[in-house]
Write a structure and sequence with these properties.
seven-stranded antiparallel beta sheet; mainly beta; about 170 residues
Length: about 170
């Protein structure tokens, strides 16, 4: 079993770094291939985890579906879903996915930033709490109706330029 911190220690590692590749090989048996045209994530559906990468060196054309330079994907963020508890024994703040938002707030204090609203594109409401702890940002994305945790994102605030900084 792993802690979410077992993943964060690899923030800043290249996807092609031998130590990081070894960690991924030992931990996962169903990771998708990295393809910047499809996503900035590689995922394990079985283990309920998405590993996100920042790849500033890549050169590609989304419209044409062509990668000119593969670049160097750097591990910078990850998402945990309820299925992740099969390998994750410690989530941030020792919470679980059935924890309601009020209990999260009791354990964590006030968030650094909260976003609540309605997405016209997705035709659904959203509620997110963000906590900044040194260079790490932990975000809780809640189900709007019962305010239980939908997923948790942990990211390096210094590496993830395409996510708004806190």
């Amino acid at each position: 079993m792993l802690s979410y911190k077992d993943f964060t220690k690899y923030f800043g590692y290249s996807l092609y770094d031998n130590d990081f590749k070894r960690f991924l090989d030992i931990t996962f048996n169903d990771l998708t291939e990295y393809n910047i045209l499809e996503s900035s994530y590689i995922t394990s559906e079985e283990k309920g985890i998405e590993l996100g990468f920042t790849n500033n060196d890549a050169v590609y054309d989304d419209d044409e579906g062509v990668i000119f330079v593969k670049g160097n994907p750097i591990f910078s963020h990850l998402n945990f879903y309820p299925a992740s508890t099969i390998i994750i024994n410690q989530l941030p703040f020792d919470i679980s996915f059935d924890t309601i938002r009020n209990t999260v707030l009791e354990k964590t204090g006030l968030p650094t930033k909260t976003k609540r609203g309605y997405s016209e594109l997705l035709k659904t409401g959203y509620l997110l709490d963000h906590y900044k702890i040194q260079d790490i940002v932990i975000s809780f994305d809640y189900k709007v109706l019962d305010e239980t945790i939908k997923f948790i994102q942990v990211r390096s605030n210094r590496l993830v330029e395409h996510l708004s900084r806190l």
